Amino acid sequence: METQMLRSHYMEVDGHDIHYLSNVERVNNTSTNPLVLFLHGFPENAHAWEPLISCLPEGVDVIAPDLPGYHKSAPLGQEEDYAVPMLLARMATFIEEVSNKRRVVLVGHDWGGVIAWPLAAFHSHLFSHLIILNAAHPSTFTELLKTSCKQREKSQYIHQLIDDDAQSTLQSTDFTLLKNMLGELLFSTHKGYADTLLAMWNNKRSLSAMLNYYRNMPQLVPVTDADEHELKRIRVPNIRILIPTLVLWGEQDDAFDVDILDGLPRYVDSLTIKRHELATHWIHREQATWAAKHICDFIWNRE
Predict the structure, then answer these.
(1) How many alpha carbons fall within 13 Å on the CB side of residue 100?
(2) pLDDT value at position 189?
(3) Quick one: which of 10, 16, 195, 283 is 20 to 30 A from 276 by CA?
């Protein structure tokens, strides 16, 4: 699939436009093509999926939105609108409308995965399959925060993003933290995409919206050496997934301890996990061909 086939579209949801890329002008509700909807993560946008989408065969209908407040999607009215339950309701409405009553293969990475896991749990009627790329399940992530000093250490960057001065610090340091997350190679080898990121980060409203996702996390990440009393107060959510689920995981992820996968069978009834020992958190771009193959095999039941 050639990435130039993707076109920009907009849909209004509860008074705010959501921008999305798609290779179809309008979803045909009689088509037998798989309809795959991609949710990107922080600090990216919908264009992050283009390398992977370009590896998909013809006959796959694609929708890739900018998350609310990101890039060309309108910022929401209030900071609390970025709380996970509010985002779930908004994205469920978007998916129900944009899919034109077709069931969707839902794909999420990073914050897109944070949203995709509970979307699949609480709005399962919208989806045929769930595919997650390096995004922790809310239950296993919370469990590991309670039990793993290593995971708490990996998550400390979140405190920088929820600091009162986070926005001004990011801007004054030329977004060094975000650039380091993504890796300098991105900015030298994917200049067009990198330019869209820099423009988004330099937009104060977009940057504030991006940080609001972290400011509204259900639970604050404890410090690395949190005491037993603090850890006991952490509540583990019970997020159960009943639809077929594929997890693609880069084992060199700086944000997550790979042990986060161990608890998944307790929460996911039909689970397939594929690991890539060399890939990092950005597996959707680094290993696009590998990821696309496993996605296609999973959708068409070839695994």
Answers:
(1) 13
(2) 87
(3) 195
Residue 182's CB is within 10 A of a number of other CB atoms, namely: 21
Q: What is the mean pLDDT of the chain?
A: 96
Whole-angstrom Cα distance, residue 225 to residue 104? Answer: 42
The answer to whether the predicted template modeling score (pTM) of the entire model surpasses 0.85 is yes
Q: Which residues contact 288 (CB under 8 A, 6 or more apart)?
A: 51, 52, 54, 55
The conformational region for residue 59 under phi > 0 = left, psi -120 to 50 = alpha, else beta, is left
Residues above pLDDT 70, as percent of the chain: 98
Angle at CA of residue 69, ends 184 and 156, nearest 5°: 50
CB 51 within 8 A of CB 62: no
- Report the alpha-carbon distance of residue 4 to residue 58 in Å, rounded: 14
**303: pLDDT confidence band, cut at 50, 70 and 90?**
low
> How many Cβ atoms from other residues are within 10 Å of residue 215's Cβ?
16
- Hey, what are 73's tokens? 């999607």
Q: Which residue has the tokens 């065969």?
A: 57
